[in-house]
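F.,

This is the one I mentioned.
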């Protein structure tokens, strides 16, 4: 007879309210494993939209991840960067999976049951605190693929949250002309420069576009950007992107704005400059890459980039017990200048 297992699960119950509830796990199927969570990372982008009641409730929670079913309406579970350990295998699963450390695109909860296609084995040389950035690194990798940076290009990144900083770290490996970033918070700008940005500016600076053009023209080559990434989560930043993009410039939008409206000023140079606006989304690969980039190939590359950048050394600012999750969301909501990556920790 199956042992009854209780778990603690985090629910978004109403605007700016989360609670941890105890549940009984359903019976485990033969093709499943039981996972005990070690740590789980909070997304300061999507999860804060949900927390603040700014997510579009008519949308499915996710159309590609089985664990994120339903719609973005309260109450709901959410989260997609969880590290755990397999503590039991079903009768139809190879016993070698027992005790493996895994990553899963799974909501925040202490235990869960999953089939093997819902978990990813973590290489032994990658620690859980780096592996928990897997989903965000995959997003940054997708942004690079969609932007297709070229040698010598001038690139601007608007926003230096976790996605923006990982993107900065990746693009700093390219032989670019200039890599300039923007963020409202001094600490993030300092980390950005330490990762390889040539300069990082406050977007609230008076005449910020003039400052940007001056930084781009520091080499005397070109005062406009060839490629701009918008990952700030602020739709108003798109007008800065348009204002600094050059002829035939590409603007890649990695932010998800939820219910926030983007009021774009397209009456100036946008039309004559043939500027391109492109949405980037990590759940799918651009059609032009389908013949080359399988999911397993992309994941393999993401592990390599995590080894190279070691995000745990730069970005984790808070480790908070899962039972105190409400404090974690309040901290992210009210003190973005003091936070980067907040990790929920679980008792073994």
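My design for it:
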């Amino acid at each position: 007879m199956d042992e009854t297992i209780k778990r603690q699960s985090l629910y978004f119950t109403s605007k700016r309210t989360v609670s941890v509830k105890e549940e009984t796990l359903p019976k485990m199927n033969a093709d499943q494993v039981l996972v005990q969570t070690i740590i789980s990372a909070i997304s300061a982008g999507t999860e804060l939209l949900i927390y603040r009641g700014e997510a579009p409730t008519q949308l499915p929670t996710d159309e590609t991840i089985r664990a994120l079913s339903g719609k973005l309406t309260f109450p709901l579970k959410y989260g997609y960067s969880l590290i755990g350990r397999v503590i039991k295998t079903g009768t139809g699963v190879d016993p070698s999976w027992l005790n493996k450390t895994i990553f899963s695109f799974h909501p925040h909860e202490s235990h869960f049951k999953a089939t093997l296609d819902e978990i990813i084995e973590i290489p032994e040389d990658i620690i859980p605190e780096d592996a928990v950035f897997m989903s965000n690194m995959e997003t940054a990798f997708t942004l690079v693929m969609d932007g297709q940076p070229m040698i010598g290009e001038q690139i601007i990144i608007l926003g230096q949250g976790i996605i923006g900083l990982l993107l900065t770290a990746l693009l700093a490996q390219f032989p670019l002309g200039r890599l300039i970033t923007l963020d409202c918070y001094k600490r993030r700008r300092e980390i950005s420069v330490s990762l390889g940005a040539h300069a990082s500016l406050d977007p609230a600076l008076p005449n910020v576009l003039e400052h940007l053009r001056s930084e781009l023209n520091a080499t005397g080559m070109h005062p406009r950007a060839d490629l701009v990434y918008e990952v700030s989560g602020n739709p108003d930043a798109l007008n800065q992107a348009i204002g600094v993009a050059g002829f035939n410039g590409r603007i890649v939008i990695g932010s998800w704005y939820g219910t926030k409206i983007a009021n774009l000023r397209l009456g100036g140079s946008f039309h004559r400059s043939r500027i391109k606006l492109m949405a980037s989304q990590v759940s799918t690969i651009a059609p032009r890459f389908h013949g080359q980039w399988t999911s397993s190939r992309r994941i393999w590359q993401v592990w390599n980039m995590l080894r190279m950048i070691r995000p745990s050394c730069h970005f984790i600012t808070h480790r908070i017990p899962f039972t105190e999750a409400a404090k974690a969301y309040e901290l992210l909501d009210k003190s973005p200048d003091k936070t980067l990556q907040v990790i929920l920790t679980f008792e073994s």
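The chain has two domains: 6-133+315-345, 136-287.

Talk soon.
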